[in-house]
Amino acid sequence: MNRDKDDKSSNTGIAGGLAGCITRFICQPLDVLKIRFQLQVEPLREDHMTSKYRTILQSTRLVYKEEGLAAFWKGHNPAQVLSIIYGVSQFSSYEHGNQLLRKIETFEEHHNVRNFICGALSGTVATLITLPLDVVRTRLISQDPHRGYKNSVQGLRMIFRQEGFKGLYRGVTPSVLQIAPLTGGQFMFYNIFGSMFRQYSNIGVNETLPAIELFICGGLAGLCTKLLVYPLDLAKKRMQIQGFAKSRQTFGRHFVCKSMFNCMYIIVKQEGFVGLYKGLYPALLKACFMSAFYFAIYDEMVWILNH
User: Fold this and answer.
1) CB of 211 within 8 A of CB of 300?
2) How many other β-carbons are positioned within 10 Å of the β-carbon of residue 185?
3) How far apart are CA 39 and CA 33, in angstroms?
């Protein structure tokens, strides 16, 4: 009996890792565009000719012209490792936390609160484990061609050597602040939308929803939560490139800040409140597709592994 439980628990970890791996590869080009938009100080407007990136279509053409097709998968290796580790740690800790809280009568009755708490805690744990990979990924995506780091391993070594342990955890404050409501909200909204589909389609609690409905639930969950925490994600990216100006000479003015609050203050002062939502369009597309693929693939993988 215990062996069956252990097998199912390990299956959730495997399924989470596979879901993260597949989803990351599919959505990496949107992530590249999102990060380039987030880090650009100049306005993202079609009529602003001094801006390097102005629209999604124009930016896609420019990246392809200047750097080739492979540029859309810049930083993919650390991102892929990040996704696997993040997926395994997030879903494993989520399932374990859910099982523990089910034993408490209050959380057994209020399942949406339970899903939010478990999602928030699991996301925080996964973020702290994988943040150094996120820092080096951001820098690989944002560096000039033939400058900066050759690969993620060299990047991690150089960051640690030049900036210390603190450099590997640049942007940790907005990362932790955003991840709790982000992952908690994703799991909560995903289960809310899933319950709505089950009621509408008369599908039992123990039955798996069809793939298209899982996809829609995941997409809506990602969309709802991303809108809430986006400014923190932008601040995190801006903080992750501090001390990296020499390798970013062709991307326009370099942004300098001292802390998360200082970062957000400068953004509002120089770029207006709309600056806090730079790169929102590709971010929403990415969040929608990533959550949709992530949850749909995860549930399908769990079903396959458990059967």
Assistant:
1) yes
2) 24
3) 10
The region that residue 143 occupies, defined by phi over 0 for left and psi between -120 and 50 for alpha, beta otherwise, is beta
272 contacts: CB under 8 Å, gap ≥ 6: none
What is the three-class DSSP state of 77?
Answer: helix
User: Which range is most confident: 124-138, 203-217, 220-234, 281-295?
Assistant: 124-138
Q: Is residue 3 scored above 70 in pLDDT?
A: no
One-letter amino acid of 103: K
Residue 70 has pLDDT above 70, yes or no: yes
Are 238 and 267 in contact, with CB atoms under 8 Å apart? yes
Instruction: Tell me the residue type at 203.
Output: I
CA distance 113 to 196: 17
What's the whole-model pTM score?
0.73
Whole-angstrom distance, CA of residue 58 vs CA of residue 62: 6
CA distance 161 to 148: 14
Contacts by 263-271, CB closer than 8 A, 24 or more apart:
263/235, 263/238, 263/239, 264/231, 264/235, 267/234, 267/235, 267/238, 270/41, 271/41, 271/43
Single-letter code of the amino acid located at 128: L
